[in-house]
Amino acid sequence: MLGYPRFYKLSGNCIAGLSEKERAAINAAADDINGVTAKRAADHGFAFGDVNTTFTGHEICSGSAWLHSVTYPVEESYHPTATGQSSGYLPVLRSAA
Question: Strand, helix or coil at 67?
Fold first, then answer.
């Protein structure tokens, strides 16, 4: 199982959109989901890959984001970019497999 990265770099380069408090709440929610997912994976004998380390410095508002912000069409919003897949998720998947 792979987790979610923290979506936002706090005190980053975002000039519009969500407030800092809202960004922090979204990051906290991702951490909560990861905690629950990691426990459930372990309970059933599966490995959990935490991607926060690989995504650090590449959150939305970082200036070098590996995640899409709100996009049009909306289906890509908050999903990883191609670089996020190859440099953020893939190394963690390989090490967890």
Answer: strand
Contacts within 8 Å (CB) and 24+ apart, 29-38? 30/3, 30/4, 30/5, 30/6, 31/6, 33/3, 33/4, 34/3, 34/4, 37/1, 37/3, 38/1, 38/3
Report the C-alpha gap between 21 and 85 in whole angstroms.
Answer: 27
Query: SS3 for 69?
Result: coil
Torsion angle (degrees, nearest 10) of CA 79, 85, 91, 94: 90
Predicted local confidence at residue 12, as pLDDT: 79
User: Alpha carbon 59 to chain centroid distance?
Assistant: 7
Q: How far is CA 12 from CA 1, 20, 51, 84, in A?
A: 29, 9, 20, 18
| Threshold 0.85, pTM exceeds | yes
